[in-house]
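Please fill in the sequence for the structure shown.

STRUCTURE ENCODING:
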């Protein structure tokens, strides 16, 4: 089964001023990311406002992203996690488009009561695309499902032949390391906390999915380079810079990520409610804050089409 490595971006979904999906920006997004050393995209996920997209909009996005995938740029389709029939339908659409893998998260309204129920849900979705790598997306801060992933991984390993791994977005390094080393690193356990990338490297991570790679990939590639050279002190200093930039996301709220993209040179439009779009005044304030950081040094370098 294909293994994914390096930085995989969680891309924002571009919207028009009327908050309709803007497919025309996908080609520029892919070039923006690939030129910055990013190896793939995890589309329609949390960052992509996947929970606010319709089934048909996701299908259109899968088809558009599929045009720009190649041997050096992976595209993983996030399907959702609330409706089993919708997840199956979207999995089949992703396969029809020729995408590289699919992923789901746990149902976050009618939550699974235990690991067995969650595994059964995953198995149902994975079974309709037996020839595609299947990932579970662990993000308990948003879906409220806190089962140890090591327990789920052991269950899925027995019943999901096309299981590829887990997108692990949580701070439990003990659980993460156990998953990473399960059956001699059988699975792709992709790290999902940008602010803790160095910590994940220390226990052996080699695949990473995150939103801030979309505009600051060079900072994370620098952390990886310094770590591989054994210069841990310098790597920690660069990781701190990433943390300080990420802290601005907390300052300006849940619509700030697209503003970072705009500051890096790629305007992807507004967010859909209930996420808010930064006002012009707030955006100017963000730019002032960024001017006091190494944002310009570490923002993605690219040439737009």
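FILLED IN BY: designer on duty
SEQUENCE:
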């Amino acid at each position: 089964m294909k293994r994914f490595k390096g930085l995989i971006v969680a891309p924002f979904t571009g919207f028009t001023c009327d908050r309709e999906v803007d497919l025309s920006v996908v080609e520029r997004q892919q070039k923006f990311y690939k030129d910055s050393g990013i190896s793939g995209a995890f589309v329609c996920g949390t960052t992509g406002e996947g929970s606010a997209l319709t089934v048909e909009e996701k299908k259109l996005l899968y088809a558009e992203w599929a045009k720009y995938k190649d041997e050096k740029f992976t595209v993983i389709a996030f399907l959702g996690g609330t409706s089993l029939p919708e997840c199956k339908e979207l999995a089949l659409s992703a396969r029809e488009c020729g995408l590289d893998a699919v992923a789901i998260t746990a149902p976050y309204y009618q939550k699974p009561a235990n690991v067995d129920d969650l595994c059964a849900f995953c198995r149902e979705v994975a079974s309709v695309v037996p020839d595609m790598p299947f990932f579970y997306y662990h993000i308990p801060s948003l879906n409220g499902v806190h089962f140890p992933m090591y327990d789920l991984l052991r269950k899925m390993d027995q019943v999901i032949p096309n299981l590829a791994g887990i997108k692990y977005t949580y701070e439990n390094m003990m659980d993460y390391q156990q998953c990473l080393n399960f059956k001699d690193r059988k699975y792709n356990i992709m790290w999902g906390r940008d602010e803790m990338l160095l910590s994940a490297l220390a226990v052996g991570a080699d695949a990473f999915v995150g939103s801030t790679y979309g505009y600051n990939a060079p900072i994370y590639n620098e952390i990886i380079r310094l770590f591989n050279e054994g210069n841990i002190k310098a790597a920690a200093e660069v990781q701190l810079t990433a943390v300080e930039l990420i802290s601005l996301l907390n300052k300006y709220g849940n619509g700030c990520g697209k503003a970072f993209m705009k500051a890096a040179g790629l305007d992807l439009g507004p967010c859909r409610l209930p996420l808010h779009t930064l006002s012009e005044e707030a955006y100017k304030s963000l730019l002032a804050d960024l001017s006091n950081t190494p944002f310009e040094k570490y923002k993605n370098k690219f040439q737009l089409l």
